[in-house]
Amino acid sequence: MLITVTRTGGFAGGEKTASLETECRADGPELERLAELALSTEGPVDQEPVPDGFRYVLRVDNKLVELQDPYLTEEQRRLIDIVLTTAL
């Protein structure tokens, strides 16, 4: 499973994109579980943008979801953190 996260916004307004493939990772099954939960959980429909907040595009294989702080679930936040900190 290929997981890609693109983060935009924040105070500086920068963009960061990171990807990782779960196939050869020891924690691959856990990352795949988090990815499925992250995609299946909808955020609040009436999300108000937060000044200087981060926005995320989470792509898992061919599925895509757009998310934003502070409306992330625990699973979404954990997955995003892992991808952005461990991907090359």
Task: Briefly say what this structure is.
The protein is α+β, with helices and mostly antiparallel strands and 88 residues long. The protein has helices at 28-40, 74-86, and strands at residues 2-9, 14-21, 54-60, 63-68. 30% of the residues lie in helices and 33% in strands.
Relevant terms:
single chain; 4-stranded antiparallel beta sheet
Question: Would you identify the regions where 5 or more consecutive residues have pLDDT less than 50?
Answer: none
**Helicity level:** 25-40%
Strand tally, please? 4
Strand order, biggest sheet? 2-1-3-4
SSE class: alpha+beta
What's the rounded overall pLDDT mean? Answer: 88
Radius of gyration: 13 Å
Q: How many angstroms does the end-to-end distance come to?
A: 16 Å
Number of domains: 1
Chart the SSEs and their pairings.
Blueprint: E1 2-9, E2 14-21, H1 28-40, E3 54-60, E4 63-68, H2 74-86
Antiparallel strand pairs: 1-2, 1-3, 3-4
Helix pairs in contact: 1-2
Mind explaining what this structure looks like?
The protein has one domain (2-43, 50-86). The chain has helices at 28-40, 74-86, and strands spanning 2-9, 14-21, 54-60, 63-68. A hairpin with a 2-residue loop joins strand 3 (54-60) and strand 4. By secondary structure, it is an alpha+beta fold. The protein is 30% helix and 33% strand. Strands 2-1-3-4 form a 4-stranded antiparallel sheet, covered by helices on one side. The mean pLDDT is 88. The protein is built from 2 helices and 4 strands; from the N terminus they run ββαββα.
